[in-house]
Structure formats: structure tokens, C-alpha cells
What does this fold into?
Amino acid sequence: MEFFRIKKDIPFMRHALKFNIISLVTFLLAVAFLFGKGLHLSVEFTGGTLIEVNYQLAADLEKIRDALGNSGFSDYSVQNFGSSQDVLIRLPLKGDQNTSQLGESVMKSLATAAPGAELRRVEFVGPQVGKELAENGAMALLVVITGIMIYLAFRFEWRFSVSAIIANLHDVIIILGFFAFFQWEFSLSVLAAVLAVLGYSVNESVVVFDRVRETFKKSRGMTTPQVLDHAITSTISRTIITHGSTQMMVLSMLIFGGETLYYFSLALTIGILFGIYSSVLVASPLVMWLGVSREQFIKQKKVIEGANEDGAVV
Amino acid sequence: MNRYPLWKYIIVAIALVLGFVYTLPNFFGESPAVQVSSAKATIKVDQKALARVEDALKGAGITHDGIQLDFNGVKARFTSTDIQLKAKDILEKTFNPDPADPQYVVALNLLSASPRWLTALHALPMYLGLDLRGGVHFLLQVDMKGALTKRLDSISGDLRTVLRDKNVRHTGVTREGDRLVIKFRDAETRDKARSAIADTQSELILSEQGEGSDLKLVATLKPEAQKRFGELALKQNITTLHNRINELGVAEPVIQQQGADRIVVQLPGVQDTAKAKDILGRTATLEIRMVDDSPGALDAALAGNPPFGTEVYNERGGQPLLVKKQVVLTGDRLTDAQPGFDNQTHEPAVHLTLDSAGARIFKDVTRDNVGKRMAILLIEKGKGEVVTAPVIRTEIGGGRVQISGRMSSMEATDTALLLRAGSLAAPMDIVEERTIGPSLGAENIRKGFHSTMWGFAAIALFMIAYYQMFGVVSVLALASNLLLLVALLSLLQATLTLPGIAAIALTLGMAIDANVLINERIREELRAGMPPQGAIAEGYERAFGTILDSNITTLIAGLALLIFGSGPVRGFAVVHCLGILTSIFSSVVISRSLVNLIYGRRKKLAKVAIGQIWKPGTVAVNGQK
It folds into this structure.
């Protein structure tokens, strides 16, 4: 079996501008949603209490809401979580509430008005901890970006590292844009997925760039767009198969992983799809526009006096 | 060219065998067990306790499945939960004859059901996090500021005493925030006060302020003293928490310092959060009272008729003691307790430090009661115990008290610890709480397992269909990657959480990249007309640089998560980082050795089964050029 039977190099670079415009539009939309709607941050970041209960039969959310309202709670949210039997109750942080007893008092009020609830999980995060988690998350993102930048700068020319980082950062923004647009819950594990995907799709760019460098060194007489086309074409089979395999695993998590892994795998899915697109079709044109050329790769070789283009001395 | 030297094969074989052995315990599941551990710092669980457990079970006719002693205590395994519950009752009765005063913690636990030779090799199943096994997690914030304020208040009392003793007239000692201000009328008195305070209080920084008749001396705690005090407070809180959690009967509690001022408490298997919180937040108090040693009084008290104003307490070791109800001193006056030695007799001793008010009271009491005994009581949950009841030899002034006599140095250490740990040094707040029910834990394991299994199956099917023999090699390499990763996690006893399982799945999904790279490269070389042996060698060679690159970028992300992540993210990051390491080994070394085994020996290799190689301009031929 072989999927890719490509006779000639696909002229990706001819459409470079289109790809980048698509990319730019998506990016701007993502930024707009991010600022317009904002992220729906999980309890871990905002602080508050989260209670998951399970009923034998489908839960009556109205009854649960009434029960909480009658017990003097306010600003709560009651939702189904994964199935009709599972219910997630969110309570915001309140200064005057005795937070340490919140879980018990919710269960008590449910016991009378909506009996049969089994407590599955309570999560309470204080305001201080939430703030720290958010700060640490931002820190982690910053370190990943600088770490990868430094690594790429060592490994490649600056043009490559700059384009790889731009391409992949725009992935991150697009993932966040999706989460803002659909108001999916952004939790710590989603953050982990975003960072993992950042590392993963940078390596996609690395693979393509490796080929670019190799092609520049090997084949003479090709223009820069031709070299890029050739590099992308010869790695496209690997790109699709690798990402396809990873996506199979992620899909399996999306289907079997339950509610807890749902948003985690969703972030990975978006990341993988946009990762392919951006690291191949956005990063490469950027390299081209930044002015990459063959001379930058053969400079290191000793220039022999009087050598012709092929390096032979007459 | 595609042959490995023997030592490389041996390394691969050893890695796989070790991987298999250390993965093995995870398949045996767990069997019910009862664990007996010490509830008090002074009681050690040793071989004797092991023999006692054995005797008690034998006496009751309960058959066990093995008893072992480790740093946690004595653990006995049973074949069913019914027997486990019966055994727990028996052991509870044997070890804690008086339920009101438990000496040991007898708790239900689960132990790995793997054969003993595996346990002897230290091959244990993976350590499951709370989200997989159920339990409670608390993050407690220690109120260091509150603790420092308390300390400063006690120092201000000391300062007043010092100034009065030295006859230095001041117009008031007050605490303003985190500093103490002493006011004076003239500079001369202030100088005198300054030298007097500097002599006795080495922890303070003194500075002069004010002018005219409104002169001030401002005292603040030295930064290193603050730091030391904070560390001490935190340690004391942890010790206190340990003592209290012992009462809950939790098999493997985790109580750890996190950062400078936080304590993590994890109680696997505990569902009753209300009780757990109650116990964590309780306060214990220390009291010093006089012992009533008048002849006959104790016998009368034991007969149920205690003399007026006295009550009976048990001394550690079980001796009853008649103690006066009037409290001489409380633990609030105790600033420190340290183990040490008596200066003259060189016997082990406990050195107590009292604050100035306490010292004055203590001096008066000891002067009036030379030759009598005083009892040091620890009162917790309204229940008291005499820690020690020494005889007063002379009048004791200066606030430094020494308890000695009939003590081993071990006992001295434990007593000092108990005295310090009796109460919390600083108030604590719960800043994070997570409770996970046991059913949710089991469900999480199932979900994580299914995701990994089906994902793996899908990848395996595809790889074999697409790359044929090389696909099989890739899948075997991927399987060995999983094996090594699980083995490594078991060996390191890193905590596995649901995000951790997700990381296993994701790592596998990403690790296949290396084999795809290699296989694609080999195909490409074949397409370019290289003979198969050369193509294999070249493919591995060339792909390696790229594999290393891609793993390094992923590793950077993983490490950043490890450093800055907390909770679920850290669980993810640990597995992710370890998985990257194992995947480099398995996808490069193991898969190469398999390929070498299959193809390397054949001199005239005409074709390899790597799936269709299509060349532009020719008709595709299956597997050959």
C-alpha cells in the first residue's frame, strides 16, 4: 500500500500567499474571539468549588437547582457532565462562605430535595492557588517558546527559527481561539495539551527544514521556491502518516477517554490539524520571504581559489 | 552492514527482560491486606510486632497469604475481603486493647498480589494517584504571618521582663505590624536598654528612632531568625498532622512540604472529608500541673474516689498518676523543646524554653515545690496523657527547664517532638481540596486503559498494512516502548494519574513518528535505486538526526511542564518526559536490532517487505525494485 504517488514536486510555493492569508485570517479571528469572548477558565484557574455527583437514573437538573437555591447558594451552575446521570455543580468563590464545608452542605441540601446523589468528586481551589496556577501556566508557555527558539537558533539559521516559532505560536493562538469561540472549558490539562502540541508541531517544521537544508546542499540550479517545494513534497508522505497515527491515538482518547480527557484530546486534535498546515504551509513561505538562499548553506565550505561552481579546480 | 555486535543484542535483551519483570506486577492486581503501623512517635513497629500479628491471626484461626514488615509497618495479605475484615477486628483488639487510647493504627489496605520474588526484586505495581484510586487531597497554607505575630507578642513579654530585671524605665512596649517599638524619655536609658536587650535577645535587630523626649527603640526579627522560625513552624505542623492522621487509620498517607509555606496532605481511600478536615484542624494543648503524691490518695482515686481538686491520668507506659486540676502552665508559654544531654550526669534530657511570663511562674512554682513531682500533660480531643512526670530538684529560673532521668536518648527525642508537635505552631487554611470517589477512580482507569488500547490497535493495524514487515517491526518497537515506559514508571514509583495515562497514549502516538521517518526514508532510498541492505542502513542513519531533533523539541515542552506544572499537569509531564526517553531507545535501537535479525544475515537480499515502492514512470511492483 502506498498513498502518495507524486510524480513531480507539488508547487506549494506558488500558493504561498494564499496559504498565509488563510492563516492570517484564522489567526485574526482567533485573536478577536480570545479578546471578545475570553476563555472559559476552569475552577483550577479561577478558584471556586466544583462538585460532581452521580444519580442512578437521569438527574433532574431543575430540582437540583431549586435545592441549591433554597439552601441559600447563589451564582451556581448546574450542568450534565458527559451523561444524563452525571451532574456537575460549580460554585464561585465567596469571601464569607465557609469553603471547607461547602461540599458537605451541598450534599446535605441535595439529600432532601433531589435524593439519590452519590458524591463522585469535589474540587476546591482557593483564589491564591488559582492565581498561581495561571501564572505558572503562562511561565511554562514562555519557557517552552524561548527553549525552542534557542534550540532552533543553534540548530538552524535564524530565518528558520523565527518562521518556525511564528508558525507554531499561531497554532497556539488558534487553539485558544477555538476554546474561546465555543466556550469550551480551558483547564490545566488543556494547557498541557497545548504545550505538548507546540513541541510536537515544531518538530514538524524541523523535519521539513532539515530537508530544505539537505536539498540546498545537494541540488544546484534550483530556485528557492523549487527547493522548498521539493522538500515539502518529499516529506509530505511522512507528515501525513505520522500525524494520522498520532491522531488515531488522540481520536481513541476522544472517544473512550470520557469527559475528563475530552477537552484535552480536542485541543490536541485542533493542534495536530493546524500544526500540519502551519508548519508546512506557513513556516516554509516565511522562510522564503525572510530571504533564505543556497549561499547561506555552502558558505561554511572552504572556498578554494579559482574553484568553479561545482567546486572543481581547473 | 546491517549486523549488530553481540553486545548490542544483549543490551536490548536485558532491557526487554528488565522491562518485562518490572511491568509484571501490574498484571497481578491487588489483594486485600491489613496494615498495622505505629500511632505514636514512641512506639516502633518491629519484628516483635510482626510475631504478634502472626500469633494473633493464628490464635483466631485466620489464614493469611503472607506477612511482611516494611517502613510503613506490618502488612498481612488475605485472600478475600471477608477474611480481611475479620482479621482487622482481631488485630484491632490485639493491638489496641483500650479503644480510647489507640497505640497502633490498624488499617485496611490493598497490596500487590504479585509473587514474593517480584516484590523482593522491588518490582511493584505503578503507584496510582488519587484520581485513579479515590481519596482526598488537601493543600494547606500555613499562616506564617500569624505565626510570626504570635512570636513577636511573646518576645514583647520577654522584653518587658528583661527591662524590669535590669531596672530600665521605659514608657511602653508595643507591637506595630511586624516590629516592636519601645519608648523612652531620655537617650541614656535607651542606650542602657539597648545593651540589655542585645545581651539577651540575639534574634532581634535594634534601631533607634525619634528625638527629644520621644525616643524609640525599634526591634525587628532578623531575616534568618524569621526564616528559621518559619521552617520550624512548618515542620512542627507536619509532625502534628502526622500524629493526627494516624488516628484516621489511613494506610498510606502522604504529608509533604510544598514550597515555603504549604503542606500537601493526601489520604488515599478516605471518603469522609468532613471527619478528615475536623481532625486536621483540631488543636492539642500542653499543660503542666502538679502531681499529688500524698500517701493513699492514688489508691482512693483508683477506687473511684479521688481527693478534691485532683484527677487521674495515665502516664505513658500505663502507670496511673494523680494530678491536680489546677493548671500551672499551658503550652502557649513553651517556645521550644529540644532533645539534649544533662550537663553534669550526661543523661539524655529534654530542654524546654519558656517565655518570660512562663519563666516567672515556673520559678515561683519550683521554689515552693522542691522534692515534689510535676506532670507534663498533652491534652487532645479532651483526652489527656502524662508525657512525663519528673521530680523537681531545685528552684528553676530563667525559663530554661530540663527534663531528665529514666530516659533513653530516643525517648528524649520523641518527647521533645511530642511537646513541640502537641499543637500547631501556626494556623493553617485549606487552599485546595480534591475528593475523588472510588467508583470514579476505577472508571478513570478503565477509560484511560481503553483509550490507549484502541489507539494502539488502530496504529498497529495501519502500520502493518502499510509497511508490512517493517510495520510489524515498528509495532513491536512501539510495544516494547510501552513495556519499558510502564516498567520505568513502576520502578520509579512515580505517581500515575489520568493525565499520566493520557500522556502514555499520546507518547505512543508521537513515538510512531520515528518509525514512520525511518520506513519512509528506507522506501525513498529503495526508490532511488539503492540495494535493500544499503537502503536499510542509510534509512536508519539519515532518519536518526531528524528523530533526535524532533524528540528534543518535544522534550523541551515536557520539561517546562514538569518545572512549572502542578497537580494534573505534572503527572502528565513526568510520563511524557520518560516516554520520550524510552521511545528514542525503542524506535531506534530495538527496531534496528529486529530488522538486523530479520534481514541483516542474508547476503544476497533481493527485496524487503516494506510495502509497495512506487517509482515515477514505472509500474508499481510489490516490495521489489
